[in-house]
Request: fold
Amino acid sequence: MGTRLKVLGVFKTLHRTRMAVFKDDHRALTAARLKINEEFRKNKNETSEENIQKLIKMGSDVDIVLRQSVVQMEHVAENRLLLRPRKDLLLENVPYCDKPREKS
Reply:
């Protein structure tokens, strides 16, 4: 795949991630869109293949961090927050047990 297509793919993936991670938060959606566009414009004239590959890797890493680490919360009262996790962040709940497992 050509470098130009990889860059465009990372750009589109970051915007899709932004839409999923910051759903219904217009301020965060706008800020993320502006930051993504700013970073891509800033590096638009990069010609070094090595640097372009590093930037593609950084963009992919940012996508992973956003998907795995960002959780939405909403203020519902003065000292209360409502957590709104995405389905892909929810893990299987394993009950805690004080006793160690017996070896079989």
In short: The chain has a mean pLDDT of 88. Helices lie at 3-21, 26-42, 49-69.
